[in-house]
Amino acid sequence: MKQRWLIICMVFLAFMLVGCGQGEIKDATDWPIKDFTYKNQDNKNYGLKDLKGKIWVADFVFTSCEDVCLPMTANMIKLQELVKKEGIKNVEFVSFSVDPVVDSPEALKNYAAKFNVDFKNWNFLTGYTQQEIEQFALKNFKALVKKPEQEDQVIHGTDFYLIDQNGTIKKYYTGLDEVPFEEIIEDMKTLE
């Protein structure tokens, strides 16, 4: 009887371990990102090939934003700190500028420096046209980006996107108010 009970427990445990190792994220989107290469805050090429094999979080911001970008960037910093605290390896952060005409690499670097951003695993990207970023955001992230003519503020979403090691968007979360930091961290651990 003891052996039978032991076998049942071992089989149950084996199923549990197999289930944990599959890396499934609840309500995953599974949107693939098309290849890209843009300029980062150091005016160096940076793209999807640099992110291959890494988990990454992306958002859309711009340096002259008067409302949502400041708290979004502060929230991304908090997420970056939580990733370090949790010891999650190979995580990158990517912020795409939605105002590339204004946001030169230098402007992005100055913007990030105001927040004391840790650039070791965070790149701010530019180096494309307004039309290119609007199409890139819509086609890959299903996100609206639009700069109205004669306006200096850009319309854009406020989500954080979790992307896996193969460049597939797994999930998105609010990056502005009541950011689900614990959920994002758990989802990252699932992808590890």
How is this fold's topology laid out?
Layout: H1 2-20, E1 31-32, E2 37-39, E3 45-47, H2 48-51, E4 55-61, H3 69-86, E5 91-97, H4 105-114, E6 122-125, H5 130-141, E7 145-146, E8 155-156, E9 159-163, E10 168-174, H6 181-191
Parallel strand pairs: 4-5, 5-6
Antiparallel strand pairs: 1-10, 2-3, 4-9, 7-8, 9-10
Verbal overview:
With 192 residues, the protein is an alpha+beta fold. The chain is 39% helix and 22% strand. The chain is built from 6 helices and 10 strands, in the order H-E-E-E-H-E-H-E-H-E-H-E-E-E-E-H. A 6-stranded mixed β-sheet has the order 1-10-9-4-5-6, sandwiched between helices. The relative contact order is 0.20. Residues 4-22 have low confidence and may be disordered.
How large is the radius of gyration? 19 Å
> How many alpha or pi helices?
6
Distance between the termini: 39 Å
The ordered H/E elements are HEEEHEHEHEHEEEEH
Outline type:
globular
Instruction: Let me know the largest β-sheet.
Output: 6 strands, mixed
Total strands:
10
Q: Strand portion, in percent?
A: 15-25%
Low-confidence regions: 4-22
Percent of residues in helices: 25-40%
